[in-house]
Design brief:
The protein is built from 22 helices and 22 strands. By secondary structure, the protein is of the alpha/beta class. The strands form five sheets. Strands 16-15-17-18-14-19-22 form a seven-stranded mixed sheet, with helices on both faces. The protein has a six-stranded antiparallel sheet with strand order 10-9-8-13-12-11, covered by helices on one side.
């Protein structure tokens, strides 16, 4: 048995010198232990102190039953399995510094997930390895090397070796690195492979299937493994949506990553029913109803991290089409400093959100990050001195210190009715998920005029059009001008991958706007060969002052309002985007995808 540690060279050299000096004495003591017939626990204590270990030959199943510990097992039925002549000498071997996690295998002997998977029996669950914190690394000269985080897990390594029929060497690996290796092993072993799809033949009845931890390989039903694998793969690739799209001959599965859809998998049309049923079972939807749109929610865990998935199904001519919105609770909430604003934009935003009463509107298409921005503002404003209440459809993330109310039209809870109720709750700050009609807009305006700060969204193409949209909804111009602090139009553009970014010619269009250089992502493993990784917001902020308010009251056109705003420092989405192109944040193609030339 070999005990291997990282980053302890000096101590190991001392122990190694001492081991060479006492080698003869140790061998003699090993023989005494082997012939003494002492109990396993005594032998283990003595052997560890002398850098020796006992290998358990008898296979009692890979690990103890639930609720039992390795120590319980060793002191009961497995004690009789000790073979006196099977005692292995232990030495201490050191590694060199810290492992580079960016590589699957390096000169320090860390095997790849493929190499690890090759030596693990198919009957051995990765869930068990994760629970007992052991990882078989490799087999050399019939000796199994097992990674463990500490010597407390030494007996688990012995049991693993017994189950695989090999004597063991143990290697001390920091727990975080060990768990990372197990996650990468699961990624390799439970990937959505062709054989998993083929194994789905004949799967029909899913009524009684339970929800599973998606980071689990303990399930045998192929459709469960397929759905779990898809969800895990989407989270790993930072996808925000999973689309299951049935067509005449096949089912297309696509991921939306950084705002753009990518084909992920095609499965036979015969697999549509079990796949759809499994997703609906997990989302607590009616699997017997196929002709009515349904909504549901799935709560899954990934390595102890909670992830919410919002599910929507609609009937189409080829069957139910399903969209899953992935809401990673650990990654979704951002702060103002995380939104990618320039210092200038950030100062404007900080000023307007700290005005005690009035209304701020956020505009942009679906998926442009409006809710994320409002959540970031609420986190900045949330203090024990203020009462914050939101009305949302749906609630995407739980905000600490904020009362969040879910719209439920079947129960009569709409945006307008909810607003009437929460105004009696003495709020200081209100967030309205969307101003959809006159009633909601009117109540929001009235609330902003009576001492409340109101945040809400509208669907318009730019920030200045928000004022016109309010008036079109029936709000009097003087009320709109008196209540509105600012309107903010925003878009999300993909960031160029920092690993493969290279400078390119900006082109005639950008040069005509004063852009002297541009960048583009070449494509690499880091960005999955797309040239982009992550997204950043661009924010067009239209702040009303007395002059602009008077122009709104007098019903001036949008062009006149824009001209007045420019004199006060207003910049359009296009102009802000050009700045990000020149700084190498995004590419010219991406800017043209989300906005247009002024």
């Amino acid at each position: 048995m070999v005990l291997e540690t990282f980053g302890e060279e000096e101590e190991a050299r001392k122990k190694d010198g001492k081991g060479k000096k006492d080698k003869k004495d140790k061998k003699e003591k090993d023989k005494d232990i082997a012939g003494s017939g002492v109990s396993q626990k005594e032998t283990e204590t003595d052997s560890l102190s002398q850098e020796n270990a006992v290998f358990l030959k008898e296979d009692k199943g890979p690990f103890p039953e639930d609720g039992a510990t390795a120590q319980d097992t060793s002191s009961s039925g497995m004690e009789g399995s000790l073979l006196p002549d099977e005692i292995y000498e232990a030495t201490i071997k050191t590694g060199s510094g810290h492992e580079d996690e960016s590589q699957d295998a390096d000169h320090r002997g860390i095997p790849t997930p493929r190499e690890i998977a090759a030596i693990i029996p198919s009957s051995l669950s990765i869930d068990s390895l994760r629970q007992w914190k052991v990882l078989p690394m490799k087999i050399e000269e019939d000796i199994l090397e097992v990674g463990i985080p500490a010597m407390d897990h030494f007996q688990n390594a012995q049991i693993l070796g017994a189950s695989m029929g090999h004597p063991v060497e143990v290697r001390i690996i920091p727990e975080e690195k060990l768990m990372a290796l197990l996650r990468r092993l699961y990624d390799f072993r439970s990937g959505v492979a062709d054989e998993t799809v083929e194994a789905m033949e004949g799967i029909e009845d899913l009524d009684d299937l339970a929800r599973e931890d998606v980071l689990s390989d303990s399930v045998d039903v192929p459709v469960i493994r397929l759905v779990n694998g898809l969800i895990l793969d989407a989270i790993r690739q930072r996808a925000t949506d999973i689309h299951v799209e049935p067509y005449e001959d096949q089912v297309q599965i696509r991921f939306r990553i950084d705002g753009v859809l990518h084909d992920r998998l095609q499965i036979p049309r015969s697999h549509q029913a079990p796949l759809t049923s499994r997703i609906k079972v997990m989302a607590r939807m009616d699997i017997a109803e196929h002709m009515v749109p349904q909504d549901g929610r799935i709560g899954v865990t990934l390595g102890g991290k909670a992830v919410d998935i919002r599910v929507s199904s609609v009937p189409t001519q080829h069957g139910e089409r399903i969209a899953l919105r992935v809401l990673d609770k650990g990654e979704g909430l951002l702060f103002l400093e995380d939104l990618g604003m320039s210092a200038r934009e950030r100062n404007v935003m900080e000023n307007i959100i700290h005005i005690p009463h009035g209304m701020i509107l956020f505009t942009g298409p679906t998926g442009s990050g409006k809710t994320t921005t409002m959540y970031a503002i609420l986190q900045a404003l949330s203090t024990p001195e203020v009462n914050i209440i939101t009305v949302e459809d749906p609630i995407e993330y739980d905000l600490p210190g904020v009362a969040q109310m879910q719209v439920n039209e079947k129960a009569g809870v709409t945006f307008s009715s909810a607003l009437r109720s929460i105004l009696r709750q003495d709020p200081d700050i209100l967030m309205i998920g969307e101003m959809r009609d006159f009633d909601t807009a009117h109540i929001g305006v009235q609330a902003s005029l009576t001492g409340h700060l109101v945040l809400s969204t509208l669907h318009t193409n730019d920030s200045i059009s928000a004022v016109v949209r309010l008036i079109d909804m029936g709000i009097e111009p003087y009320l709109a001008a008196g209540s509105l602090i600012a309107s903010v139009a925003q878009r999300l553009v993909r960031r160029i991958c920092p690993v493969c970014r290279e400078e390119v010619d900006p082109g005639q269009l950008l040069r005509s706007h004063g852009v002297s250089k541009a960048f583009r992502g070449r494509g690499c493993d880091h960005c999955n060969w797309t040239g982009y990784r992550g997204r950043v917001g661009i924010y067009e902020q239209f702040v009303l002052d007395e002059d602009i308010a008077e122009a709104v009251i007098s019903s001036q056109p949008v062009s006149a309002l824009r001209q007045m705003a420019r004199k006060k420092g207003f910049r359009t989405l296009w102009e802000i985007g050009l700045e990000k192109v020149e700084k190498g944040v995004t590419s010219p193609e991406e800017l043209l995808r989300v906005t247009s030339e002024d």
